[in-house]
Structure to design on (70 residues):
């Protein structure tokens, strides 16, 4: 953002941060509950695990594959 800011007077209002960390399957039930409470309490920060990101990517790719077959 800083490298292009001066060129076209681009400004950002309330940017969102994404943190990719860990895997859900490595958590115990208690850790998972704590993780979900912590994640839902954050404002303007999305915390996603590697396995959740992988599933999102697979889902997006399947949509493109389905559209190619039509």
């Amino acid at each position: 953002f800083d490298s292009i800011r001066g060129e076209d007077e681009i400004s950002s209002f309330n940017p969102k941060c994404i943190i990719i960390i860990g895997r859900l399957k490595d958590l115990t039930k208690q850790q998972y509950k704590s993780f979900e409470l912590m994640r839902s309490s954050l404002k303007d920060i999305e915390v996603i695990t590697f396995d959740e990101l992988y599933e999102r990517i697979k889902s997006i790719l399947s949509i493109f594959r389905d559209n190619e077959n039509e």
